[in-house]
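Slack export, channel: ligand-projects

TW: morning all. Re-posting the request from yesterday since it got buried. We need the structure predicted with the small molecule present, not the apo form. The ligand is zinc ion; the SMILES is in the block with the sequence. No rush, but it would help planning for next week.
GE: picking it up
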Amino acid sequence: MSRRSLPMPALIASVTPISLVLLATLAQPERTWAQAARDAEPAVKRANDAVRQQLPFGDRQDFEDATRGLIAAVPDLVVKGPGGRDVWNLRDYGFLQRDEPPPTVNPSLWRQARLNSLNGLFKITEGVYQVRGFDASNMTLVETRTGLIVIDPLFSVEAARAALDFYYQHRPKNPVVAVIYTHSHPDHYGGVKGVVSDADVASGRVRVIAPYGFMEAAVSESVIAGNAMGRRALYQFGSLLPPGERGHVDDGLGKAVSRGTRSLIAPTDVIVKNLDRRTIDGVEIVFQLVPGSEAPAEMHLFLPQTKVLDVAENATHTLHNLLPFRGAEVRDAKAWSRYLSDALEQFGDDAQVLIAQHQWPTWGNERVKDLLRKQRDLYKYLHDQTVRLLNQGHTPSEIAEQLRLPATLANQWYARDYYGTVSHDAKAIYQRYLGWYDANPAHLDPLPPVDGARKYVEYMGGAAAVIERAREDFRQGHYRWVAEVMNQVVFADPDNRDARELAARAYEQLGYLAESATWRNAYLVAALELREGAPKIPSAPFVAPYVLEALSLDMVFDAVAVRIDGPRAAGKRLVVNWNFTDVGQQFVLNLDNAALTYVKGKQAKNADAAVTLTRGAFDALLQRRSVAAASQAGEIRIEGDPAKVTELLGLMDEFDPAFEIVEPKRVKK
Ligand SMILES: [Zn+2]
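GE: finished. pasting the full token output, ligand included:
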């Protein structure tokens, strides 16, 4: 079970400024965690056994759908990347081939993890294919008269190239004539350079189609709060967990995210009008714009000739996230439901196959309509009932505890908690309308975690007394409480090994109980880090290069501003003019009152310094090229005081990509 090295923490790379190149060079420590992980407690075995009686495991329709149209599979697929490391490895998930779930995995999640392991090239209908199980997402391929449309080129270049090659092994090798991004999340565009080149797009041989707002959404989500999102994503996706019955089994929406090189090519054809149409080499496509649903920029596609409806990521085989707990702006459940209702009205009578860019299709008009209706009602029910309960005065945890889906939804596998959960989605809806505060002033200004924890433990008679009582609660199966109370002891004293181990055991049992893959991952990562500490990841350069080059200068200055160390900047006043010769833009940057602001299209008369440079030279400065070296090499020209430019850039803070989560933050430096 133990692995020589850890999988790369791919999601750090997916949502933070850390470059994959950097991550690839990290030495991965030996992990002994697989041995440390305990077996399921008797209470967990009983609870997991009970799940098998509660849900319709006899219903095998999903397995039929997930294998229908199979042309060829590669069940032990391994895709290699730079330096020979694994970008994708299904072989490590061979343990999922057993039908019978182990006691350490919720049987419902085990079933989902098995479905998400199925891979290969599948025929959806005449001329429409999918490559599934080469990444978290699907690559959908639509054959045109003489070419091929690629819908969503996966997360990484290597995975996308492998998927397209696999398709070509079994189908005509016609050239890609168009790439369509259904939405702005990286598992739907990051592999684009594995299927087409910049030159293909620049020459017009390939058009790249995306929904309105795509580019801004794609590059901005990971910039402002990227470091924190990346760290939190390690919990959501469990990227540091070894695959196994006591470790990682799934992500809920797919097996995992591939760990290769990411890329981005800007769209050349942006869909700005709802229900706009295109005909691409004989294939007609209708686009339904659904902004602010699962992603800020997203669209559904309907192919009238083949009657295929592609709902991107808005109706998959799981309850989705209204707020992924990696962190994001909260999504709109009401709009999400409305868009599915619109799709049903617009295409429901015609659609014969429903596909999404994750997981398997649904065939037959009646079943398509039924799934769309129930997914529509799923998000509407969560929205309306959460709002009803909050208007009755219930707080987020009270709502999460009592809210249950009606049986007509709860008995649908695709409405279950694999990725989002009823619990944290209800909290997201509360947050959307009322924010973080539950209106109880005891929660308005509580002591921060360490100070509060010390008081709690002191009042409860000291750490040893708390641990003793918690051990009894652990024996009785009260894992949620044990995790909560041990969290207090660990925050009061992170060096208390007994508290850390008992907390780890409680998290572990919670992980084994969880139907949600994301909850399981979070709990098991917590257990791992309590036993071994937070991972060691060096601080990253400013922003991953392929993201940086796609950012507008406004966005770059916003990203610089959130790195300015306020206390160090206090009392300083700096005015710097920036003149970008290649892109023809000018900015004045003002640092005053420890806040960095800018004015576009202007140069200040009384600036401390004026910098003339290209965008590329500026990006290099942000990636730690020194001002002096850049000046000497003639990459930048400075009038006034060059020291002021160095001073300004020197005020940028370093972010720790592996800050502590389940224990107090250690003071660094
Ligand atoms: Zn996705």
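GE: first-pass observations. Residues 345 and 369 are 10 Å apart (CA to CA). Confidence is low (pLDDT under 50) at residues 1-31.
TW: perfect, thank you
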